[in-house]
Amino acid sequence: MIMRFSRLTALCLLALVPSLRAQTTPLGSPPDWNSLTTYARALSDSDFTDALKSIYLEPTHYPTPWIIGPDGVKIQTGDPVNPTVTIPFASRIQAKTSPPRFWSRASELPPLGDRPPLSDIHIAIDPGHIGGSYGVMEERHLSFNPGEAIQEGDLSLLTARILAARLKTLGAYVTLVRDQPTPVTKTKPSDHRLTAIETLKQSGFPNPTDSYQGIQGEAKLLTIQWQSEKFFYRVAEIHARADRVNQEIKPDLVLCLHFNAESWGDATAPQYSPVNHAHLLINGCYSPAELANHDTRFEMFTRLFSRIHEEEIPLAKALATSLAASTGLPPYTYTTPNALPIPDSPYLFARNLLANRLYRCPVIFFEPYIMNHKQTYQRLLLGHWVGRTLIDESLQSSPIEDYVQGIVNGLLTYYKANRPA
Known about the structure:
Elements: H1 7-13, H2 45-56, E1 66-68, E2 72-76, E3 84-88, E4 122-127, E5 141-142, E6 150-151, H3 152-169, E7 173-176, H4 193-202, H5 224-249, E8 253-257, E9 278-282, H6 288-291, H7 294-305, H8 308-327, E10 340-341, E11 348-350, H9 354-358, E12 363-368, H10 374-381, E13 388-391, E14 394-397, H11 399-418
Parallel strand pairs: 4-7, 4-8, 8-12, 9-11
Antiparallel strand pairs: 1-2, 2-3, 5-6, 9-12, 10-11, 13-14
């Protein structure tokens, strides 16, 4: 979910971003730079520079912590013992090497024959957020009237279960990254207390309040409790899901399901939004501040040299087209520099999120619907149904059914066009 924030909220969210002196992001691990050498000659120099310019970098003119030469790229590691690592490019007379990966492109799948259309494809579905008893903590709990509420984590899990059933009938092998309204991480918010205190100190708040109980408004964001919870459900949870995706599931692609929202103000008296829209995200658009962190820089180069974008972009374009058709939603347009539009697809942007950075395979991040749009809220309260039902004197389809159908249609279109006959 992407929400607009006030100046104070934006300031507090910056507390989650380490200073330029930091070596790694909060809860991140020092990278194994030597592992990048397995990507030697995976890209030509033009492949590399084109991908950086069109997908992976914010359009800025700041110096980069790497040097591109005619034969390869020399990357600063931040390691005083081995301060740089060089990855050679493929020359014009050399065949590109096949980078190590656990996922398969559509073109690498076996011929389909007379089997179901999504046979041989392993799809991981990642229902965004946690939901259940964690929905209020996650600030993804929305209620306009007593006795009714929707939560993004619950909606994404319901959508994931329906989508999984549809994809299985089409022959796909499907795994849910989260299949219950419970966290994947084994940590608790209290486990991140010291990280929260240090982050607040580095951000200019040396004596933060411990609890936000009794505190109204955005001042709660400056408390140790709020920051500890944020590290739990936003950072530790995504790291745990990444470990599961990369080490256990090892899918051909991940579908990250979310529902969007505009700022609704005070959670006890939320405001409706007049707009409703949709967009999809792939990984990219790294800022200089983000690339100053060694683990972020390493993860970007791992994705780039794995050539994940070569599969991710055409797949995302097919899904964006089908989701737009099924939902009827207009495209969202970013007005901030942290997202880069992908040509020929008004619904698709590159953005550096923790999930689509850490998952080492194609990742499509979905953000349809504004949950606090009045008509959408009323439709989501009813959950899932097939066909149309009467809402406000007009027949309405289920937004969850439209969401699922859009993804199914997009996958069928893409794999039909790109896998061997």
